[in-house]
Amino acid sequence: PALINQIAAGEVIERPSSVVKELVENSLDAGARRIEVDIEAGGARLIRVRDDGGGIPVDELPLAVASHATSKIGSFDDLEHVASMGFRGEALASVSSVSRFALTSRASGEDAAFRIEVDGGKLQAARPAQHPQGTSVEIRDLFYNVPARRKFMRAERTEFAHIDDLLKSLALARDGVEFRLSHNGKPVRIWKAASDERAALQRVAEVLGEEFPAQSLRIDHAAAGLHLSGWVGLPTASRAQADSQYFYVNGRLVRDRIVAHAVRQAYADVLFHGRHAAFVLYLQLDPAGVDVNVHPAKHEVRFREQRLVHDFLFRTLHEALAQTRA
Ligand code: ADP
Ligand code: MG
Mind listing the UniProt keywords for this protein, alphabetically (predicted)? Predict the structure, then answer.
């Protein structure tokens, strides 16, 4: 199984930021209100994610790192209605096969915490540990036993920049959760949870920093079982980065052709052609209306009713943008 996990790891875990993604998504799935990410040497030396979520009962600890074990899906039927971020049950198995791995957790309602360690795919027995309610996962020496992968890791700065970007996209998705990020012991980001709309906008501005548009429109519209909310920036002469365009479907960042086309059309129709605008948009719809099971790492989705989604997005944005011209 260790070899199989290593192969799977190659698919899901490309670099330190992919590990951070899996761990933070697990924390979100566990209902965390606060997530702390500590990185050393761009993630090559250490990736630690700590949360205050529901934790893992001691008897389920070995399952957490077993391959294809997930607590999130009871049947294939559930696959249709996945609301959680992860559901394949392979992330921890994969990453623990290519690192020195430790997980410490205290489940809610328990008064003891336990720690398991996996070294090169070998699981050690759970031992008592100190930990408040929630979970900490520590990944040391990522890819230490996969030299080919280790060689592909870029400069510390580059890998950390990927982690920072990734955390931005997750922080934008969940503004009710506090995120902290440190690198080599220095705090780099602290994004406090937002409790109302004003705080939410402030947090978006904080997370995006200079990428945040000087002028933005609030979007909030629902029709035909679809709900679009968020902010769209008005294009400026100075070119905004294409990567300050965030579109979430049921809380997941998505890069989708249909979405991109609808947004581009709305801008092009109302405003000027060829200018880039930043936006942060959230589309909510019945999970049965969208297939997120296309690829674990790519940001792809497939809408059941593509036309409907496209037209809804186009009309909603078109109407909002048109008002600015009136
Ligand atoms: P998946 O998220 O697809 O279920 P993972 O390998 O990422 O698979 O995690 C395996 C299991 O470990 C999860 O289903 C969950 O039960 C448990 N788990 C992992 N991380 C956490 C966490 N931070 N808090 C609580 N449970 C966790
Ligand atoms: Mg997961």
Answer: DNA damage, DNA repair, Endonuclease, Hydrolase, Nuclease
- For the question of an ipTM over 0.95, the answer is yes
Distance from residue 199's CA to the centre of ligand 1 (Å)? 30
Instruction: Report the nearest-CA residue for atom 13 of ligand 1.
Output: 70
Output the domain CATH number for residue 255.
3.30.230.10
Ligand 1: residue of 18, 20, 28, 70 to mutate (most ligand atoms within 8 A of CB) is 70
The residue type found at 46 is L
Dist. CA 139–CA 326, nearest whole Å: 55
DSSP state at residue 60: G
How many domains are there within the chain? 2
Cα separation, 126 vs 114, in Å, equals: 6
Of 68-77, 140-149, 163-172, 261-270, the one with minimum mean pLDDT is 68-77
CATH number of 60's domain: 3.30.565.10
Count, in order, helices (H) and strands (E) of the chain.
10, 16
Whether 238 and 293 map to the same domain: the answer is yes
Q: How far is CA 148 from CA 22, 157, 231, 281, in A?
A: 22, 20, 42, 38
Cα 311 from Cα 318, distance rounded (Å): 10
Owning domain of residue 57: 2-191
Confidence (pTM): 0.89
